[in-house]
Each structure stands twice: as C-alpha cells, then as structure tokens.
Amino acid sequence: MHRRSIARAAAAFTAGALLALAAPLAASAHDTLVSSTPSDGSTITGLPDAFSVTMNEPLGDLTGNGSGFAIEVRDAAGAYYGDGCFTIADATLATAAALGAPGNYTLLWQVVSADGHIASGELRFAWAPADGSTASPGSATPPVCGATADPTAPATPMAIPTKQAHADADLSSVLWIGGAIGAVLGAGLVTFLVLGRRKRA
Predict the structure, then answer these.
(1) What is the pLDDT of residues 2-45, one digit of tens each?
(2) Judging by DSSP bridges, how do beta strands 50-55 and 33-37 pair with one another?
C-alpha cells in the first residue's frame, strides 16, 4: 500500500513539473495580429496619423535598430508609399501614412516577437479620399528611412520569412521542450526509486 503512495507522489511530482513547463511554452507562442490601422478589407476616406499593426505581445527589438522589422504600403501597380521610417512601441509597429491616387492598396508588415520568432502578413484596403488630400508620389523601390529612393530602379519587395525559417524555429522549440520533458520524467523516476529503496531499508 505504501508503495502505491510512493508511485502516486512520483506521478504528482511529474505532472506538476510538466504543467510548469507548459506555462512558458504557451507564453512563447507566435505573436498574432490583434488590430491595425487601417483594418483589413476597409475603405478609408482620410489619412490617419500613421499606418500601424498591433500584436498580442510586446515586440522584441533586441538590436535597438529595428532589424527584422518592416512595414510597407504599395498600390495596385506595385508602387511604394511613405518615407521608410517606422517606430516600435510596446506591441505596435507604425509608419507615417502616405498614399497616392484613389484605389486599392496593400500594407505589408513583419515583426520580431520578444522570444525571437518572426511574424508577417499583409492587409488590403481601399483609398477613397473625401477631403481633397494631395496624392503623394510613389516609388518603384521600397523607401529607405532618411534617403530618397530612385524611382527608376527596379522594385525589390520586402523579404517575407519562408516556411522553412518558421519550421527551423519550431523544430528548435520542439527539441528543447522534448529534452525538458525527458529530464522531468527522469527526475520523477529517480524520486520513485529512491523513495522505494528507503522504504525497503
């Protein structure tokens, strides 16, 4: 009967340890988009102060220079708009709003979460100015913050992380979690054996 109690204690210990591991695992899940300006599929009639995307967790600008982050706006013909500058504040990535002629636009974004994972996506919206806004000139290349883009240069689209990059990051996480679970199960087994030997002694 006592041996059963030892087994139950070891099982409880192992279950508790696994739950403790599950908490940081849930916290390290990929960032997801919770809001944006403009919203996907919307029609805007006036320029906002900024175009932005807000994630469910604070962003991780580990280098302090915005490496890995990008936010770009393109029209249906592929021309880029804006000055290429952006800000990172808590969970929001933003850039000053600028658009050309009325029509359909796409906002592309890429962020780095606090745990190092990369998330990206695109939002589509329509521009139908109702206030006589002046159209900004577009550029064939992505604008560079603090520099003037050459409108005659060939377009270079924003680099979107490949599925393989995500797969490599996920594999690393799986291997780490597997090793941690193995260590916990090993610790539970050792605890069970030690307590069993003490009982027999």
Answers:
(1) 555 555 654 555 545 444 444 444 444 567 999 999 999 999 99
(2) antiparallel
CATH number for the domain including 156?
2.60.40.1220
61: pLDDT confidence band, cut at 50, 70 and 90? confident
Alpha-carbon torsion angle 57, 62, 68, 70, nearest 10: 60
For residue 160, the SS3 value is coil
Asked if 173 and 135 sit in the same domain, the reply is no
Dump the DSSP string for 71-117: EEEEETT--EES-S--EEETTEEEEE----SSEEEEEEEEEEBTTS-
Domain that holds residue 14: 2-27+168-200
Residues 148 and 72 in one domain: yes
Which residues on neighbouring strands pair with residue 53, listed in sequence order? 36, 93
Kindly report which listed range (8-17, 61-70, 74-83, 127-136) carries the lowest average pLDDT score: 8-17
| C-alpha dihedral sign at 109, 35, 164, 176 | positive
Enumerate residues 6+ apart whose C-beta is below 8 A from 2. Answer: 199
Which tokens is 6 given? 């030892």
Residues 119 and 186 in one domain: no
